[in-house]
């Protein structure tokens, strides 16, 4: 029973992935531009879900999937035309299939009538797409006197190999003599003997045989010799088998034929052989003596051995690409395994603890007499290197491409466009960019909100766009890339941009900004992230409820990320999300301020230096700046921000760590000392305590002390607020500098 | 036992095949065929309404035709729909259908 549960879990996990595959394919299904590979992929996804469901006895799910699959088969077969309405129906069917899976997972029956509407819609397409039956002029008056079919070969359950070998030999030899294969073609002979319970797992031989027909000129011969008599027939057991002769172009290979049977490879015996055209020399037709692989025609290019007799585990039926019963066929060998996420998380935790232990050993080693224990030190250095590689390898296991999130967005855009009546084109790039699974999972809601906002608020309607000289269809560009050890996701639209006067007046109206306040463009743009803020005049299904962008920012911040907005009136807006690649471990620089230790993410650090007094300047009533590499950089005194006593206050006696945020702006952090580089294990502060401004997380250092991991962009915001709130405490003696000369940092 | 719609007219049993001959319908179809042959020497399966068909149901009809031939009974598939004809073609049974549906 426990094993069955495990197989079921695998089935549901795989079904979730298959649903995504189907949805992605459906969203790309465009009337007039039907990609047969895409259609096949959707069909296979639905078929796999159905097949697995049949194995577990999910009859309602199987019945519905069958309806869905039948329409997809019609699409494959060009009997059901692809229309926008059909695609909408199929997307709804895919959603419903997901619901049916949820019911099956919970062990609950679906409420009565759950599938009725969608099934009816599916059938309407089926009947509309396929020609209806035409009645002949008259009913038959008399039956034929004798049965039509005689056995083609004897049924012999005990000698399948012999049967196959003999049958294939006979077929190939006879045909090669009588009917040589035309040049440029291959003639395949496929003997397909399903197990009697094939139908009960939801498989339908007619679909497979039809799929074979699509590969070339096929002749299907049905073997009826194993049929029992009317009284002994069991309705759901299959007693038919087939031999298909397929004359196909040379580009139809074994893989394409195997693909047809990929779902039933464990539930049937299949033997496939191919004959090539005879050689060019006409005077010497090759003798046909050996049907097993030989070099001269008829050439058997491939043969799949019979499936093992033993019953495979039921969950095998749910595998999307079963092995096909022939281990030697490399194309069907899986290169992946499915691992429980808990196991990976335990591994990540253990690696985290190992990193801490390694840091503690390194701490103790520092106390050893210099020049001694050289081998031990070298060994520890190697251990540090291996720990780093191990950490990266473990993290890469958890890494997932953002495509799993991006692939959901076309549907969202489609729905938003339909709701708003706007024409929208979604462009995505960087889908293969990888990031930790947790980050990926938490991206869905923020991206959904932002794309909705871009379409609802940002993009103009088609007529308005035309008036201002833009294409009628607006474009939303969703991109991802790695930058500075983080993942940066951008949502750009070519709409009207943020209406700053409107945003400001709304903010004043809601009491978020004092009347008469002077705000920069950037500050006005950022008002949209305030709780309860909305410029929508009417609340719509999409946005305007004022619960959007502040939630987005909170979600992103809770992941250790940041969000920024950049807008140009009339040209559009760009939202930039910056998120850590992993939430487990980071490379940091340990710094001290007074008696406290902090960790700065290494990716933020540009350099550290001790400034001369001449490089320091004060902006009257604002902040201190430092001239570094030809530009002024705002100084941030960590001891002031965190109220740490006993710290070095004078930058000329302390150190300034120059750090850079994802948007390229720089800060100079005034610290007492830089203690050294270290891998640190990230411990969530929010989970264990609460969120703190300027702090991304916490960690445990080698000496067992807890240190806070600093959030550089958060420090910048804190210092700005501190500058605007109160007069700066008299810290360093710096020369005054006129304020206008400073670039915003 | 569930039987599909049928009528007995002058010793000829007429089975009205439903539009949906899926796997679940195989057992009722088989039961109906058995009952039809038990009741009469002539069984006609009216197939004009068939819109979906499974191999299991085709197999049941196939066995019925064989039964008729072997026991000197009369069996026919009347007005097979195009869907049924296509399914039989896919299954390599187009010749069989043609022979058993001839007027």
From TrEMBL, chain A:
Residues 130-140 have a biased composition (Low complexity). Residues 128-154, 307-330, 721-745 are annotated as: Disordered. Keywords: ATP-binding, Chemotaxis, Kinase, Nucleotide-binding, Phosphoprotein, Transferase, Two-component regulatory system. The modification Phosphohistidine is found at residue 47. InterPro entries: Bact_Chemotaxis_CheA, CheA-like_dim, CheA-like_homodim_sf, CheW-like_dom_sf, CheW-lke_dom, HATPase_C_sf, HATPase_dom, His_kinase_dom. Residues 727-745 have a biased composition (Pro residues). Residues 585-721 form the CheW-like domain. It comes from the Bacteria. Its EC number is 2.7.13.3. Involved in the transmission of sensory signals from the chemoreceptors to the flagellar motors. CheA is autophosphorylated; it can transfer its phosphate group to either CheB or CheY. This is Chemotaxis protein CheA.
TrEMBL record, chain B:
It comes from Azospirillum aestuarii. It comes from the Bacteria. Pfam families: STAS_2. InterPro entries: MlaB-like_STAS (IPR058548), STAS_dom_sf (IPR036513). This is STAS domain-containing protein. Residues 16-94 form the MlaB-like STAS domain.
């Amino acid at each position: 029973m426990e094993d069955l549960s495990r197989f079921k879990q695998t089935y549901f996990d795989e079904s979730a992935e298959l649903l995504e595959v189907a949805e992605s394919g459906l969203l790309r299904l465009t009337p007039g531009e039907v990609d047969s590979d895409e259609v096949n992929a959707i069909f296979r996804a639905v078929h796999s879900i159905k097949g697995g469901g049949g194995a577990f006895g999910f009859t309602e799910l199987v019945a519905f999937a069958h309806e869905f699959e039948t329409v997809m088969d019609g699409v494959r077969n060009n009997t059901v035309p692809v229309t926008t309405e059909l695609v909408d129906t199929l997307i709804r069917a895919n959603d419903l299939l997901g619901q049916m899976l949820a019911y099956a997972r919970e062990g609950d029956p679906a409420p009565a009538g759950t599938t009725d509407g969608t099934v009816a819609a599916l059938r309407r397409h089926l009947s509309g797409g396929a020609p209806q039956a035409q009645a002949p002029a008259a009913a038959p008056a008399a039956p034929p006197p004798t049965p039509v079919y005689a056995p083609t070969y004897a049924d012999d359950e005990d000698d399948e190999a012999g049967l196959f070998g003999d049958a294939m030999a006979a077929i190939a030899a006879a045909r090669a003599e009588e009917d040589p294969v035309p040049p440029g073609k291959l003639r395949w002979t496929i003997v397909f003997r399903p197990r009697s319970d094939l139908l009960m797992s939801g498989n339908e031989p007619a679909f497979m045989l039809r799929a074979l027909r699509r590969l070339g000129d096929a002749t299907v011969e049905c073997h009826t010799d194993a049929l029992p008599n009317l009284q002994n027939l069991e309705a759901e057991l299959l007693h038919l088998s087939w031999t298909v002769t397929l004359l196909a172009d040379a580009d139809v290979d074994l893989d394409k034929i195997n693909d047809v049977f990929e779902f039933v490879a464990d539930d049937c015996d299949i033997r496939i052989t191919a004959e090539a055209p005879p050689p060019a020399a006409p005077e010497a037709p090759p003798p046909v003596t050996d049907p097993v692989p030989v070099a001269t025609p008829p050439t058997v290019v491939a043969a799949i051995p019979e499936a093992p007799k033993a019953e495979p585990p039921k969950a095998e039926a749910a595998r999307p690409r079963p092995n096909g019963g022939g281990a030697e066929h490399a194309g069907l060998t899986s290169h992946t395994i499915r691992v429980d996420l808990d196991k990976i998380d335990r591994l990540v935790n253990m690696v985290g603890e190992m990193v801490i232990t390694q840091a503690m050993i390194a701490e103790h080693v520092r106390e050893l007499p210099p020049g001694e224990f050289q081998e031990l030190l070298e060994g520890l250095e190697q251990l540090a290197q291996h720990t780093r590689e191990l950490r990266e390898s473990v993290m890469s296991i958890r890494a997932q491409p953002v495509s799993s999130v991006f692939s959901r967005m076309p549907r969202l855009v489609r729905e938003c466009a339909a709701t708003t009546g706007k024409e929208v084109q979604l462009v995505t790039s960087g889908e293969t960019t990888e990031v930790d699974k947790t980050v990926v999972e938490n991206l869905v809601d923020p991206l959904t909100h932002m794309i909705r906002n871009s379409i609802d608020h940002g993009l103009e309607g088609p007529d308005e766009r035309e008036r201002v000289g833009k294409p009628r269809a607006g474009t939303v560009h969703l991109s991802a890339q790695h930058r500075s050890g983080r993942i940066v996701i951008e949502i750009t639209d070519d709409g009207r941009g943020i209406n700053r006067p409107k945003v400001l007046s709304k903010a004043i109206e809601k009491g978020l900004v004092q009347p008469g306040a002077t705000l920069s463009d950037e500050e006005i743009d950022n008002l949209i992230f305030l709780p309860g803020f909305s410029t929508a005049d009417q609340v719509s299904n999409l946005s305007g409820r004022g619960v959007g962008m502040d939630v987005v920012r909170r979600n992103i911040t809770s992941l250790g990320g940041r969000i920024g907005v950049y807008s140009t009136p009339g040209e559009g807006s760009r939202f930039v999300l910056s998120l850590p690649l992993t939430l487990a471990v980071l490379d940091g620089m340990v710094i001290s301020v007074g008696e406290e230790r902090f960790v700065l993410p290494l990716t933020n650090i540009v350099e550290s230096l001790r400034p001369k007094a001449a490089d320091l300047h004060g902006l009257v009533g604002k902040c201190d700046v430092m001239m570094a590499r030809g530009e002024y950089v705002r100084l941030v005194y960590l001891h002031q921000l965190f109220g740490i006593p006993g710290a070095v206050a004078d930058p000329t006696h302390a150190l300034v760590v120059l750090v850079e945020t994802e948007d390229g702006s720089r800060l100079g952090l005034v610290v007492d000392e830089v203690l050294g580089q270290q891998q640190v294990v990230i411990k969530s502060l929010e989970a264990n305590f609460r969120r703190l401004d300027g702090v991304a997380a916490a960690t445990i250092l080698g000496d067992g002390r807890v240190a806070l991991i600093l959030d550089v962009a958060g420090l910048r915001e804190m210092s700005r607020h501190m500058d605007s709130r109160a007069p700066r405490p008299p810290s360093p003696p710096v020369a005054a500098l006129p304020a206008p000369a400073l670039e915003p940092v | 036992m569930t039987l599909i719609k049928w009528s007995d007219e002058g010793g000829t049993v007429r089975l009205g095949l439903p539009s949906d001959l899926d796997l679940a319908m195989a057992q009722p179809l088989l039961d109906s065929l058995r009952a039809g042959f038990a009741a009469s020497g002539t069984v006609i399966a009216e197939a004009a309404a068939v819109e979906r068909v499974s191999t299991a149901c085709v197999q049941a009809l196939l066995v019925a035709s064989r039964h008729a031939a072997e026991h000197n009974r009369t069996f026919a598939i009347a007005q097979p729909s195009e869907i049924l004809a296509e399914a039989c073609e896919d299954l390599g049974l187009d010749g069989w259908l043609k022979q058993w549906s001839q007027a």
